[in-house]
Amino acid sequence: MHRTLFHVAVLTVGLMAGLFFTAGQVVAFETRAKAAFVIDQSTGTVLLSKNADEALPPASMSKLMTLYMAFEALRDGRLSTQETLPVSQFAMSYGGSTMFLDTTDRVSVEDLLRGIIVLSGNDACVVIAETLSPDGSEAGFARAMTRRARQMGMTNSTFANSNGWPAAGHRMSMRDLALLANHIITDYPEFYPMFAETTFAFDGRAPQNTQNRNPLLKLDIGADGLKTGHTNEAGYGLVGSATQGGRRVIFAITGLESERDRAEVSEQIVSWAFRQFSEATLAHEGERVAEADVWMGKTPRVGLVPAADIEVLLPVIAQNKVAAEVVYQGPLQAPIKKGQELAQLVLKPEDLPEMRIPLVAENDVPEGGFGVRMRTATLILMQQFGLTPSGAL
Question: Is the pTM above the cut of 0.90?
Fold first, then answer.
């Protein structure tokens, strides 16, 4: 294994855009939440991870999966926002937070979506679930939710219903909830603005349930989603997101003791994530950061460059040099094509997990001609007889 040291000047550090690192929290942050997961979306940096992979009762936060599947159905034409859906006796029978639907209603899909997002309607979830279920039942839809979650990488999520009503085996992890939130924001930007709506007075029939319970939406801190949750078993939780200065933070928390605790902890997380970290570009696309030896090439070395700008995130109190090294199996064998992945830039910043970023060939290196092969063979023979140092190759 050949290693080339590469020391970087004082810059902020984090991860290459597009990578999602699963390391633990990078800076100590105390939270009252039983479990929490916080990421910086643009760089993928995990800012906080506390019991993040523990499968816990998600309460109404699991409604985000029902919404995601509804958005998929709208995208592919199985639903339309203006079509109206019937309300079954089973849907009407759900208690808790509801839209107060009854079997005489036919409700538009658009109203049902807002009923889930803003009012956290258990009944609205079941109407959507029974419509999209492979067998017409909520249980069948829950099984489909679980399968889809697995396909999306949510390995600690299992659904027993569409709305988070307490049920044996209905579980999600905070990492899974953050991943799901990121998918909603990224995959369905046309629907995401609904998550920032603070009121929805459906049909005027339920004045006691018209307010979005997300405590961050009215604080002018850039919050624009996503979903609260509460049951006696789960405690109080929130899947939240906020943007400031071009950055987006996504988080999921659960296990808090009161609405007040949920509001305080959520605001603390948003403030900490934006105030204690800053972003910069460590290296630009195509900028040479190192060279590697090439075996039997027309030229003896090739430049190593990032294929995209390396966007990084660093705690503001750790504006020090970033130790790094370029690691590759060398010498590299010609021919080499421009853009071919050859090495990794390993970043080792203070108080952050190690990060590995691919480096590619700066240019083509064709195989050398007869003279190169003869010279290489001669040097090998000389080395075998102790007539030249190994570094001459």
Answer: no
